[in-house]
Specification:
Layout (H helix, E strand, L loop, with lengths): L8 E4 L5 H12 L3 E6 L2 H13 L3 E6 L5 H15 L4 E4 L14 H26 L5 E6 L12 H21 L4 E8 L5 H14 L6 H6 L10 H12 L10 E4 L7
Parallel strand pairs: 1-2, 1-4, 2-3, 4-5, 5-6, 6-7
Length: about 260
């Protein structure tokens, strides 16, 4: 087990599957004590158990990222059990593929509430606990859809663009307090969210579901979709002292499909 994050306490929201689960495992392998959090406690417990099976330190917690009282309460419990927070990853998010004129107020509000408001609440909760120690790292999960707009993704793109703006603002405001804030911007990734949206991808692109992956891969210079591990390796770097001079950035993990 490596030690880039030894003696650090890390919270990862949406840690019960996909990219979040990979980040939890990667952090634990680098020596961090990881709070695996997810709206589904059973999913969080499964990831935490798998980490403990390979001698990592992990505990499972459940909260809705848009419920401030729940986030505050669990953050307090995590600090009592694991110690002061060093790293907070706002990873929990949702996505829907829907034509703009069919996007309801309810769907718009849901996506902003989970993706953007959840990142806002998580960042406030974490920063308040990091300020007394004058150190900490916030990582916010944006997307290549936070850099480039796309049809049928208006609500999602708006939330992910917003996360980058929030990241930059916090990075400037809290740099003098020793708190770094960065965003990660994955491309199309093979996650449970991919599986959930495969039919929608196919319908939007007028493809058969079996042809969707090759369609995306043909447009990516590196020639493959993003993996959870690709994102987790970047998260480890940005959370570690190797990135001590990096803040306010929105870093692409897109295989060359987005370069700004």
């Amino acid at each position: 087990m490596s030690t880039k994050l030894e003696q650090r306490v890390a919270v990862v929201t949406g840690g019960g599957s996909g990219i979040g689960a990979c980040i939890c495992s990667a952090f634990a392998m680098q020596g961090a004590a990881v709070a695996v959090t997810d709206v589904r406690l059973e999913a969080a417990e499964k990831v935490a158990s798998e980490i403990r099976e390979v001698q990592g330190r992990a505990t499972a917690w459940s909260f809705d990222v848009s419920d401030r009282q729940a986030v505050e309460r669990v953050a307090d419990e995590i600090e009592k059990e694991l110690g002061p927070l060093d790293i907070w990853v706002n990873n929990a998010g949702i996505s829907r593929i829907v034509p703009f004129l069919e996007c309801s107020d309810e769907l718009w509000d849901l996506i902003q509430r989970i993706n953007l408001k959840g990142t806002f609440i998580g960042s406030q909760v974490a920063i308040r606990r990091m300020l007394p120690r004058k150190r900490g790292v916030i990582l916010n999960m944006s997307s290549q859809s936070g850099k480039v707009g796309n049809s049928h993704y208006a609500a999602y793109c708006a939330s992910k663009f917003g996360i980058i703006g929030l990241t930059q603002s916090l990075a400037v405001e809290f740099a003098a307090d020793g708190i770094r804030v960065n965003s990660l911007c994955p491309g199309v990734a093979l996650t449970p969210l991919w599986d959930e949206q495969l039919e929608d991808y196919a319908r939007k692109r007028k493809l058969k579901p079996k042809d969707v992956q090759s369609h995306f891969e043909s447009k990516i210079p590196i020639g493959r979709l993003c993996s959870c591990e690709d994102v987790a390796r970047l998260a480890v770097f940005l959370a570690s002292d190797d990135a001590a001079y990096i803040t306010g950035q929105a870093v692409n993990v897109s295989g060359g499909s987005v370069m700004h």
